[in-house]
Design goal:
Rossmann fold; alpha/beta; 287 residues; 30% helix; two-stranded parallel ribbon
């Protein structure tokens, strides 16, 4: 899956310092890539980054845009909205020779489909998207006008973002709704591989490839760990099932965490956060 040519890629800039951005930075540096990271407040949010690799950047502050080097590839980790700011920034800072990977969400496919009754639809990259959503408008502009590779990402979990806690706290319950998940470590590697293997202007769905009903997950979690959600299981939503064949065939053939329950078992082991502080939440749905 990973090869040594990753280290020879040109410099990488991570736009955004949230949960996923931190994992991308850690993985890239482990693979000897030259990587920079940006934040609205780098002195506060980028303590895990070498000082000379920290940059101040804000999409809504054009004064910060010139600080981005013109010869870097970009991984955009936060919602690409509003459209006007996305257009202005991309026209200023995204050159034709740069590779650009944009993290979207599988919520782009939510158009009142599979929400009540019937069966959960299978969703691939040819499925229609909701272009009324501001972030989808931004993603599509970057894809069609600047050749961005868009990753439509399912619900992200991992250290400090544990589905067992979602169940314990009642954020989710034992319903028939399908959920699609991806471990943050796998997502970080997919982002790096997308720079190397992904096609410009293409969209790839990203999940572990195993849609599961919350009822199934809750039952297994109760059996293994005795954790039961206080949330009512009476919900008509059926969700959706994400197809990842395109990703597997062209970008990431193997995931490190394909088995949700093995990954949850590993998350139970006591260990400090990889980055020493509680990470911010990304804007991704549980689906």
């Amino acid at each position: 899956m990973y090869d040594a040519s990753m280290a020879s890629l040109r410099r990488l800039m991570i736009l955004g310092s949230g949960y996923t951005g931190r994992w991308i930075y850690q993985l890239a540096t482990q693979r000897s890539m030259s990587v920079l990271a940006s934040s609205r407040r780098p002195e506060l949010h980028l303590s895990y980054v070498e000082p000379n690799a920290r940059l101040r950047f804000s999409l809504d502050d054009p004064a910060t845009w010139p600080s981005l080097a013109p010869d870097v590839d970009l991984i955009w980790t936060f919602p690409a909205a509003p459209l006007e700011q996305v257009q202005a920034f991309a026209d200023h800072s995204c050159g034709p020779s740069q590779r650009l990977v944009v993290l979207g969400s599988t919520s782009a496919y939510d158009q009142d489909r599979g929400q009540a009754g019937g069966s959960a639809p299978w969703i691939d990259e040819t499925s229609s998207i909701n272009t009324d959503l501001p972030r989808v408008q931004g993603e599509e502009y970057l894809r069609t006008s600047h050749g961005a590779t868009v990753l439509r990402v399912a619900g992200i979990y991992g250290p400090d973002r544990n589905p067992l806690e979602w169940i314990r706290q009642g954020r989710v319950g034992s319903t028939a709704k399908f959920v699609n998940l991806v471990h943050v470590e796998d997502l970080a590697l997919v982002c790096l591989l997308a720079l190397q293997e992904g096609n410009a202007g293409e969209t790839y769905n990203v999940s572990d490839g195993h849609p599961r009903r919350w009822a199934e997950i809750c039952a297994e979690v109760s059996r293994r760990w005795g954790i039961v959600s206080p949330r009512s299981s009476d919900s008509p939503e059926v969700g959706k099932r994400i197809v990842t064949r395109k990703l597997v065939d062209h970008v990431a053939p193997v995931f490190r965490h394909p088995d949700l329950y093995e990954a949850l078992e590993a998350l139970q082991a006591p260990a400090p956060s990889s980055f020493g502080e509680t990470p911010a939440r990304d804007a991704h749905s549980l689906g």
